[in-house]
Structures are given as C-alpha cells and as structure tokens.
Prior knowledge:
Elements: E1 2-4, E2 7-9, E3 19-23, H1 30-37, H2 41-47, E4 60-64, H3 66-71, H4 89-96, E5 112-114, H5 121-128, H6 132-138, E6 149-151
Antiparallel strand pairs: 1-2, 3-4, 5-6
Amino acid sequence: MYQNYGFEKFINRDSLRDTIKHVVEKGDTLYEIAKKYNVSVADIVSLNNLASSMIYPNQILFIPHKTKTEECKKITLREYLIKNGYDTTGYLEEVLNIEVVDTKTLEPTNNRYTIVDTDSLDSIMSRTGLTPYELLNLNKGKWLCPGETIIIK
Length: 153
C-alpha cells in the first residue's frame, strides 16, 4: 500500500521494481516529467494509479524504467587480439560485425561524450581509453543509450 496526501492507493509492488522515484516540484506537469524521463504520460498515470492529470508539489511519482531500457541496445563486451600485419579494418568489420572507427577524428570534448546510435561499449572504451570499470564508476546510474551524455574523465 502506498500513501500520498492522506489518500491510500494500491500499487502493485512488483511494478515498482524497475522505477525511478520523482518528487513533483512546483510548476511540474506530467508532460514535462514524462519528457524528462523519456516515457509516456500514460505510463506514469497507469503506474501511479492517478485518477486525473492533477499533480501536486512534493507528491511522489514512480517513473517506469522499462521504456528507456527497451530503447537501449544490449551491450556486450568482447575482446579480440588484433594480429599485426594480418587483420585489416575491413576484415574486422566483416568478421566481427563491428564498425571500426578512427579514434583520432572522434576526440571527446570537455570530459563528456554523447552516445550515438552506432556506439557500443567497445567503441566508447576505444575512444575514451577507459576500462569498463572506470566507465561504469564515472557514470553510476546512467544508461548507455543513444543521446545520453556520459562523463569520460
């Protein structure tokens, strides 16, 4: 059971497993909140059992995380040792099904990098020189999705 402003609402606890807690601020609208988290207003209304679109300052809303998760690419880490004098960029692109990127033309600026559609964990690490541990440690709680700006040192 969830209590908010003295009104008791029944929310399925399982549905809150992959959510973000958002505290409504003065002037917030469901549309702006939905846009901020890249979810639909209907998703927020449904998850929070809202009877109307009226929200109040300090009200707690649960924001579904599933929509953003579905947009993210599944990132897998693969290691491949390049054979000097044998492997070419064309070979690597074809056999490993990856895009080989010239890292010199993609220098990150201002210690931040905005992820693009074609990025993978491998390509981000290659551009930034970070290990997976460093990348995740610098960007705790962030999703590696296109459009997301991450810290790279």
